[in-house]
Fold this protein.
Amino acid sequence: MVLDNEAVQALLDPTHRKHRTVLAHLEVRNQRQRGRRANLRVLVPVAVRVEAGWDRTAATAADINRISSAVDVDLRRAGADRAVQLRQTADVSVVDATVGQAAESATHPAVILTSDVDDMTRLAATLEGDVRIIGI
Amino acid sequence: MDDAVAELFEAVQRLHDEDATVVTSVRLSSSLREAVKAAVRAGMDANPNDAMLNAVRDRLEAFAQRLALDLHYERYPDARPSLAEVAVAAAQLDDSPLAHELDLLRRAADEVVRLKPDADADDVLVYAAALRSGQAAHGTTSPAAATS
């Protein structure tokens, strides 16, 4: 499960109107992992963290660090090259391209949790593997 | 939050960092050791060490996340999603057609907790599928009625 910018924004702010919606997805992850029914990893591209202002060392990030269990997806050389290709092919933002790259490099089937369904659907169509979009 | 929980949160967040390793001893039953070795041969993980580490890591992450979510809901009670909302998320993650049947999922969530107070999202999905199947096959309104 890859988080985009608004999914992170929603998690950061308990008053955000989509906070519960994103938490519902994290609940599924937790219920299934505790029941050993599935191992669904939560991923956040580092560019998304930058855009959303998620500094893991900040005191204000303590909650999201803990409740999300999200693992950072770093952008190394090959990943950066792939993000460039995706940006050019799907005409998406730099950050969205890294979301696509993270989803593509994740275990499949993968999902992208996003508020930008149109752009992400266009992006997903260019990705290799089984990547779906879930609108929040 | 007590010290052990705080220490757990701090340690769990470092689980995916590249880290120095330590050798430690764990007492295993011989049957568990044999089962792990057989599972590795069957393709579960690359080696017995990875198999053990992955199992422990997954349990730790799930346990810590559960604690964190419950603490979050203590501070922000309105943030807790309902069982029906979690079921919708589960259906979306599964790409299930039930994801589009919000009324059915709400009803299933209402009914299933009467039968199983600790029901989770997957219980709701199974119940909702049974509701729908019962309606289609018998024109009945609940799984219990469909089987009577």
Observations:
- The first helix of chain B runs from residue 3 to 12.
